[in-house]
Design goal:
Elements (H helix, E strand, L loop, with lengths): L2 H6 L20 E5 L3 H11 L5 E5 L2 H10 L4 E5 L7 H10 L8 E5 L4 H10 L3 E4 L4 H37 L7 H15 L4 H13 L9 H4 L7 H7 L2 H9 L9 H6 L20 H15 L11 H13 L5 H12 L3
Parallel strand pairs: 1-2, 1-3, 3-4, 4-5
Helix pairs in contact: 3-4, 4-5, 7-8, 7-13, 7-15, 8-13
Length: 341
C-alpha cells in the first residue's frame, strides 16, 4: 500500500457495541463511496452483519450512477476522490428533488471548522472525522436510517392521499384529468407571480387534493344533473372542511391545508366554508380558485355543456364584477393561458 493510501485508510477503534437488526420491512440500503477499496470493504464489514444491504462506489461519477440505479437509504461519502469529489456529489444530490431526502454522512480525514462548514454548505446531514469509533459510526447510521424510514412512511401516506384524490376525481367521468390540468395551470401562474418553491409545491399538491373531501359526498349529490336542494348544497359545502381534516395530520401539508379549505371562498365573502373576504383568502387558494373555475367552465359537467374559452373568459369577467374573483390575478391568469410561452 502506498504512503498516501496508508495515511487515508480509516482507523476504527476496538470498542464493540451491540447492534440489533433494524426493525420491520426491507433491509436498509447503504451506499459506501470512497476511492480506496480497503475503506469500502471495512465499512461493509461493519454494516452488513447488522442486516444492511451495502453497495459500493469507487468515485463520484459511479456514486451518482448508483443512486440513480439503486436508490439508497443512506450514503457514507468520502471527500477526496478524483474527477467528482464527495462534496460535489453531495451538492448534486441535495439539489435534486428526487434525491435530496437521502441522508448523507460526509467522512473525511481533513479536520477543522472550515471542512465542516464546506460539508454543511454542500447539504451533508452529518460529518465524521477519521479516525472514528465503531460505536459513533453505528449510532449515526442508526439515527439517520430512522429519519429516512420516517420520511418514507410520510411519502407513503402522501401517495395514499394522492391515490384517494384521484379516486374521488374518477367518480365523475366528466372531469377527466381535471387535477392534472389544475396542477399545471396553478404552478405556471405561481411562477409568473414569483412564488417560492414551497408555495409552488403546495399548489401542485393542492391541485390534486383540493376536492379530496368529496369522498364524503354521496354520488346521488355529486353527480346530480339538476339543481341541488338546500340540504344537498350544505353537504357539498362541507367538502373543503372534510378535506382539510383528512390531510391535517401531515405537518408537511402546512401550506396545502389553506388551499384545500379556502378554494371555494370569494372576495366578497359569499363563498364557503368560512365566508372569508379579500386578502384574508390565501393567495394560493385564490390561484387555485381561478384555475378551478376556468377548467369547470371549459369542460362538460353533468349540469352543463362545455364553454368555449372566449365564453369562459366572459363569464368570469361577469363574476369579477360581482366581486367574486381577484381581478389582478385574473388578468395574469388569462394572459398566461391565452399567450403561452
Amino acid at each position: 500500500m502506498s504512503t498516501r493510501a496508508a495515511s487515508r485508510t480509516w482507523t476504527i477503534s476496538r470498542m464493540e457495541v451491540s447492534a440489533a437488526p433494524f426493525p420491520g420491512g426491507r433491509r436498509p440500503r447503504v451506499l459506501v463511496v470512497d476511492d480506496l477499496d480497503a475503506n469500502r470493504r471495512l465499512l461493509a464489514s461493519l454494516l452488513e452483519p447488522l442486516g444492511m444491504t451495502v453497495r459500493q462506489a469507487g468515485d463520484g461519477r459511479e456514486a451518482l450512477e448508483e443512486v440513480t440505479g439503486h436508490p439508497p437509504d443512506l450514503i457514507l461519502l468520502g471527500v477526496m476522490m478524483p474527477e467528482v469529489n464527495g462534496l460535489e456529489v453531495c451538492a448534486q444530490l441535495k439539489a435534486d428533488p428526487r434525491t435530496r431526502l437521502i441522508p448523507i454522512v460526509v467522512i473525511t480525514a481533513l479536520h477543522g471548522e472550515q471542512e465542516k462548514v464546506r460539508a454543511i454548505d454542500a447539504g451533508a446531514d452529518d460529518f465524521l472525522n477519521k479516525p472514528f469509533s465503531k460505536a459513533e459510526l453505528l449510532a449515526r447510521v442508526r439515527a439517520l436510517l430512522r429519519l429516512k424510514r420516517f420520511t418514507d412512511e410520510l411519502e407513503y401516506v402522501e401517495t395514499v392521499l394522492f391515490s384517494l384524490g384521484k379516486a374521488v376525481e374518477s367518480r365523475d367521468p366528466h372531469t377527466g384529468d381535471h387535477c392534472q390540468r389544475l396542477a399545471r395551470m396553478c404552478v405556471e401562474l405561481g411562477r409568473v407571480l414569483d412564488l417560492s418553491e414551497d408555495e409552488l409545491n403546495a399548489l401542485r399538491r393542492g391541485a390534486y387534493l383540493h376536492d379530496i373531501g368529496k369522498v364524503a359526498v354521496p354520488d346521488a349529490i355529486l353527480l346530480k344533473p339538476g339543481p341541488l336542494t338546500p340540504e344537498e348544497r350544505k353537504i357539498i359545502q362541507q367538502h373543503p372542511v372534510v378535506g382539510e381534516s383528512i390531510c391535517a395530520p401531515l405537518k408537511s401539508f402546512r401550506l396545502v391545508l389553506p388551499i384545500i379549505r379556502h378554494h371555494h371562498e370569494k372576495l366578497d365573502g359569499s363563498g364557503y366554508p368560512d365566508g372569508l373576504k379579500g386578502d384574508r383568502i390565501p393567495l394560493t387558494a385564490r390561484i387555485l380558485s381561478l384555475a378551478d373555475v376556468y377548467d369547470a367552465l371549459t369542460t362538460e359537467r353533468p349540469y352543463k355543456l362545455a364553454f368555449s374559452p372566449v365564453a369562459a373568459w366572459q363569464e368570469m369577467e361577469k363574476e369579477i364584477q360581482k366581486g367574486w374573483w381577484d381581478a389582478r390575478l385574473f388578468e395574469e391568469f388569462r394572459k398566461m393561458v391565452t399567450e403561452p410561452d
